[in-house]
Amino acid sequence: MSFTDNGKDTATRILDAAEVLFVEHGFEATSLRMITQRAAVNLAAVNYHFGSKEVLFQGVISRRLAPYNQECIEELRQALIDAPHGLSVDSIVAAYLRPAIRLAKDPARGGIIFIRLMSRVFAEPHDSLRDMLPRLYSDVLEAYRAALVKALPHLGSHEVSWRLQFAMGTIFYAFAGNDVARLLSQNNVPGARDPQEIVKHLVPFVVAGLTAPNRPA
Amino acid sequence: MSFTDNGKDTATRILDAAEVLFVEHGFEATSLRMITQRAAVNLAAVNYHFGSKEVLFQGVISRRLAPYNQECIEELRQALIDAPHGLSVDSIVAAYLRPAIRLAKDPARGGIIFIRLMSRVFAEPHDSLRDMLPRLYSDVLEAYRAALVKALPHLGSHEVSWRLQFAMGTIFYAFAGNDVARLLSQNNVPGARDPQEIVKHLVPFVVAGLTAPNRPA
DNA sequence: GTCTATAATAAGATAGAC
DNA sequence: GTCTATCTTATTATAGAC
Q1: Does any strand C atom come closer than 7 Å to the Cβ of A203?
Q2: Gap between the Cα atoms of A90 and A169, Å rounded
Q3: Which of A84, A85, B168, B194 is most deeply packed, by most CB within 10 A?
Q4: What is the pLDDT of residues B19-56, one digit of tens each?
Q5: Does the pLDDT of residue B169 top 70, yes or no?
Q6: How many CB atoms lie within 10 A of CB B213?
Q7: Which of B25, B174, B216 sits opposite A90 (nearest CB)?
Q8: Nearest-CA neighbor of B202 among B73, B80, B115, B86?
Q9: Do A207 and A89 meet the contact criterion of CB atoms below 8 Å apart?
Q10: Per-residue pLDDT at B216 exceeds 60
């Protein structure tokens, strides 16, 4: 590993630049030339270090995701220790979002950029990009799904799956920075990009959705 | 207007093909060659009829959206006539989703493909594509926002905006066909692509989210 | 309006010197 | 590991015959 003047090696510089650009422009619209220019490295370095643009994308995700997943699982484990007789839906949602807030505040681990990238991946049309997440993320989801099934015993397992799916959609969409808010011509929601502010309004919505009565008239 | 053997003119054939391909692959990854090949028209026809790929995209959206918007507004107007003293959140959500279900069942107006395309637009990284929707969709949103503000008088206008934003995110995500469901290794949600089935499970979730107490402890 | 042919450009990937 | 130079292939868009 050789180092450049700003203290990061070439592969890391490429990952950092790619992370930002993939969020901003999506996979297809981000060229290797944009990435290497931003990273101030040679064009050929991408293929030397990663082999292809697609593998680079996987690298951008996986470098951050593994430790983050650990944190999510650990957070749930701790919550379960503190309340061994089962968690409320509220505590489950709060536990799920706590690592996200911590990550959002920590630029060294990608910060809000990585949160937004995760949200974006689900919307990537590229099958190979979208399909990498189930593999990388299923452990976390299964853990939280199990907790929810326990917390909502009156709902069937299928209904919990539906609601978890909606909840994930809501959360990812809220963090994606797509600014559905901008749709509203008036009343631009203030603080719509601040993760802490988002979560404050998001938690009641998601908790209420998850705990909704099984079938209103 | 000259017509080909299957009864549709060239511009329409291009729009039909582009609609499907933009949903499937996104804007960037869909080439004019894919479109003209699928439409069985000449490559140059796109630029003759539309001028550019971006204008074509706008054309795909706007041909369907104007009549659909009319329907959404009319649905709300009718509901308000039937209940002149104000609508429940439940009726508002139901009114909003009714045109979507009708459209989803009507392939002649784009069917589920167009619903999914709308959902996808919000996730398009291209600014110029994402930014066309506020202009085209704000009337509908403002109408439903006003109804929600009336139905939820105890919430501030800002809070209603937040929740409408979350609700729209949930709904669009649910229809986008991104299959967050596939994240769950087990328990693949059955019927996850059938609009009627989606709506059945979606309504209680969204209504509960919108009517959540203002700030649970 | 529709076609062929092509211009102009940008993309991902690689070979080979250093 | 890093560079320059280039290959190969794709793209959007257009010019001009019919």
Answers
A1: no
A2: 18
A3: B168
A4: 999 999 999 999 999 999 999 999 999 999 999 999 99
A5: yes
A6: 11
A7: B216
A8: B115
A9: yes
A10: no
For chain A, domains (ranges, CATH) are 1-51 (1.10.10.60), 63-210 (1.10.357.10)
Cβ distance B28 to A24 less than 8 Å, yes or no, reads no
Interface touch B165/A180, C-beta < 8 Å: yes
Model confidence at B217: pLDDT above 50: no
The answer to whether A40 faces chain B, any CB pair under 8 Å, is: no
Identify which of A126, A187, A212 has the shortest CB distance to residue B157.
A187
Six-digit token string for B81:
């006539």
Look up residue B85 and give its DSSP letter: T
Q: Which nucleotides of D are covered by protein (CB under 7 A)?
A: 1-6, 10-16
| Residue B179 to residue A211: CA distance in whole angstroms | 22
Q: How far apart are CA B161 and CA B52, in angstroms?
A: 36
| DSSP per-residue codes, A70-109 | HHHHHHHHHHHHHSTT---HHHHHHHHHHHHHHHHT-GGG
Which nucleotide lies at the shortest CA–C1' distance from B30?
Answer: D11
- To the nearest whole Å, the CA of A40 is away from the closest chain B CA by 24
**B149 shares contact with chain A (CB less than 8 Å):** no
Q: What's the Å distance between residue B37 CA and nucleotide C8 C1'?
A: 23
DSSP state letter for A42: -
**Chain A neighbors of B203, CB-CB under 8 A:** 216
pLDDT band per the 50, 70, 90 thresholds, residue B191: confident
Tens of pLDDT, residues A103-130: 999 999 999 999 999 988 888 889 899 8
How far in angstroms lies nucleotide C11's C1' from the CA of residue A33?
9
pLDDT band at A183 (very low <50, low <70, confident <90, very high): low
Q: Please tell me the total number of residues recorded for chain A in this structure.
A: 217
* Residue B47: nearest nucleotide (C-alpha to C1'): D13
How far in angstroms lies nucleotide D8's C1' from the CA of residue B3? 39
What is the pLDDT at residue A187?
55
Residues in CB range of A174: below 8 A, 6 or more apart? A198, A202, B165, B166, B169
